[in-house]
Design a protein that fits this description.
Elements (H helix, E strand, L loop, with lengths): L5 H11 L4 H13 L2 H22 L1 H9 L3 E2 L2 E2 L12 H6 L1 H4 L10 E5 L9 E5 H17 L8 E5 L2 H8 L2 H10 L1 E5 L5 H14 L3 E5 H14 L8 E5 L5 H11 L3 E7 L3 E6 L6 E3 L4 E6 L10 E8 L10 E9 L12 E6 L6 E2 L5 E2 L1 H9 L7 E10 L2 E8 L5 H19 L4 E6 L14 E3 L8 H11 L1
The structure holds zinc ion (ZN).
């Protein structure tokens, strides 16, 4: 193993610059060593502090916390916390000014952030430097569990253009990347050339850890497998940014020769949960988050799928209390078999919008569809595609065609992708193709391969798993 001279240097720089990251990292380590009851007590203590702050310094929470009986004359009653109305994206937009704290402790520097807007208009919100440090520390702490220390080489394979620009677009960012031994690759679009480039880069850098959009890692894994490309094995591939299905785990672990780690977080909430080093459940960062799972009636449930409702204990600039993020998950009633005090999120799945619906009610993973049709891209006439489901029995495949190809070749390729999609959607679904000049991006700059305009009955993860398994 190569000597890691960066680690002591980074630690020294963090201390000298007064960064809050080292103490947040110590806090995460301490939390992991607590008994479950002590960790719950710590979580409650932090929730009480946050509620007092929200009540005191934001107009919105002053009103709703009083109405729900959570805070009365400054005194917090946690027994009423589940009566607090959910923070929806609509509330986030309409009450933006009233949600922002009028005052903050001096140590917390506020900054603006925004959601990706993959399922609607992007939404702006405020976070602060303490939240940012906790988010970084929770990530570093989880990397440690899989044997990756600060300063060891890492590769980030990312899909969001905005983050790629932030991570590589300035001299300061490049110096930081050098210091942290971090490399950044884009999976915003993946052609066979770009996949080969990324694989060559991995083999050259030999990263200790890869942190990737799950669809990006999956596409690379499938391509490497199909073309017999050998990939240097890191300690782990951390996967985020989408629903992590069993066939993806299998393909990524095989191609990269290491564990594929399910990692759940978001721009609004930071690192919410990361997979256990010994099992497949995810440890919830309960020193910095409160995670609830609610059924259709809004009741808290364990051991079954429901809507995820999240509270960040770290963000004081704009408190997110009982935030309905739009993802689904399942909380375990039992503690993790590894002995960790963190509660376990057994599974987490992305927005149902991501998947298409088969007539039999099962879901078709968009990643599966992308991979299926993506093979037809590359050097052929199909430049881009988007699958739009208008009804349970009707799907339109929009195609951007490269005009330099002969019509015969275009027709043959279009017929091929149409047939593949029809096979994937199953009997009873009509697939039509439409040639378009352009497929517009989302306001976030995100490009959607699949758009589902059918409102699904709350999909179960079993449905997702079945769709993923059956499709691979
Ligand atoms: Zn565990």
């Amino acid at each position: 193993m190569r000597a890691n001279w960066r680690r002591p240097l980074i630690h020294a720089l963090l201390r000298v610059t007064g960064s809050p990251v080292p103490s947040a990292l110590d806090d995460a380590r301490r939390a992991a060593a607590l008994a479950p009851e002590a960790l719950r007590a710590l979580q409650e203590e932090r929730l009480v502090q946050l509620l007092q702050h929200a009540w005191k310094h934001t107009d919105y929470y002053r009103r709703v916390l009083e109405e729900a009986g959570v805070v009365r004359a400054g005194a917090v009653d946690l027994a009423c916390y589940d009566r607090l109305p959910l923070l929806t994206k609509e509330v986030l937009r309409s009450e933006a000014a009233a949600l922002r704290a009028r005052a903050l402790p001096d140590s917390r520097k506020p900054f603006v952030n925004r959601t990706g807007g993959s399922t609607g208009q992007p939404c702006e919100f405020w976070q602060d430097s303490t939240y940012d440090a906790v988010n970084t520390a929770d990530k570093l702490h989880h990397f440690e569990l899989f044997g990756k220390q600060i300063g060891e080489a890492e590769l980030k394979i990312w899909g969001a253009q905005r983050d790629l620009v932030r991570d590589t677009g300035s001299t300061a960012a490049r110096i930081k990347n050098f210091l942290y031994h971090r490399n950044v690759a884009s999976c915003a679009t993946l052609s066979s050339e770009s996949i080969r480039e990324i694989v060559e880069r991995i083999n050259r850098i030999r990263p200790r850890l890869i942190w990737s959009y799950v669809d990006g890692a999956f596409a690379i894994a499938r391509y490497a497998e199909q073309h017999g490309l050998a990939i240097h094995a890191p300690a782990a591939v951390f996967c985020g940014g989408g629903t992590f299905l069993p066939p993806m785990r299998t393909a990524i672990e095989k191609a990269f020769g290491c564990p594929a780690v399910n990692f759940y977080g978001s721009r609004e909430m930071g690192v919410v949960a990361g997979q256990c080093a010994e099992g497949q459940g995810l440890h919830i960062t309960s020193h910095s988050h409160v995670v609830e799972v609610l059924d259709e009636a809004g009741r808290a449930v364990l051991d079954r799928d429901g809507d995820l409702v999240l509270t960040s204990l770290a963000n004081y600039a704009m408190p997110f209390l009982r935030y309905q993020i739009g993802d689904r998950g399942r909380l375990a009633s039992k503690p993790c078999a590894c002995g960790s005090p963190f509660p376990v999120l057994e599974s987490v799945s992305g927005r149902s919008m991501e998947s298409l619906l088969r007539a039999d009610g099962s879901l078709v993973s968009p990643i599966y569809l992308i991979t299926l049709l993506g093979g037809t891209l590359g050097s052929g006439p199909v430049e881009r595609f988007q699958i739009v489901q208008e009804a349970i029995d009707r799907v339109t495949l929009k195609l951007v065609i490269d005009g330099s190809f002969a019509e015969e070749r275009v027709s043959a390729d279009v017929a091929l992708v149409q047939q593949k999609l029809a096979d994937a959607m199953g009997a009873g679904c009509q697939v039509t193709t439409e040639r378009v000049a352009e497929i517009p991006r989302q306001p976030s700059g995100k490009y959607l391969y699949t758009v589902c305009n059918v409102s699904p009955m709350a999909p179960s993860l079993e449905g997702l798993r079945a769709a993923g398994e059956g499709g691979s």
